[in-house]
Design brief:
Layout lengths: L10 E7 L4 E6 L4 E5 H6 L4 H4 L17 E7 L3 E6 L8 E2 H9 L1 H15 L20
Antiparallel strand pairs: 1-2, 2-3, 4-5, 5-6
């Protein structure tokens, strides 16, 4: 398991807040994070988002209103959320959730910088692979 050592803090509480769209996590070392669903979705560890190598990441947009509709524990090292847009292939290990929580501000800035660099609006719909009608106009 990448990144998991005996010292990796483990979650002692995990709460999905549907109203505020936050995943609240408390860790064994006392750290306490509230992760927006959008951040979790945009930084999904799945190949669908990360690509299969550096530089192949797929910039996720239009996820501000995304919800977590299911949360499946994977062993005792990760959770697998199902998002309302159908995305469910991301396995979030404890160390990843911890990193996302600890570096939330920097990650938001990085995401916004990548959107700006690509000239894409944060709320733009994702062009879907099937080439939906909304994918064409700019």
């Amino acid at each position: 398991m990448a990144g998991l050592t005996p010292d990796t803090p483990t979650p002692t509480a995990l709460t999905v807040h549907q109203q505020s769209r936050l995943l609240e996590i408390e860790f064994s070392d006392g750290a306490h994070f509230k992760l927006p669903f959008e951040l979790l979705r945009v930084y999904s560890p799945s190949a669908e988002v990360q690509g299969h190598g550096p530089g192949q990441e797929v910039l996720q947009t239009g996820k501000r209103g995304v919800e977590i509709v299911g949360l499946e524990p994977i062993g005792n090292y990760a959770v697998q959320p199902t998002f309302s847009d159908g995305h469910s292939s991301g396995l979030y290990a404890w160390d990843l959730l911890y990193r996302l929580g600890a570096n939330q501000d920097a990650l938001w800035r990085d995401y916004e910088a990548r959107l700006a660099a690509a000239g894409i609006d944060r709320d733009a719909p994702m062009p879907d692979a099937a080439g939906s009608a909304c994918g064409h106009h700019h």
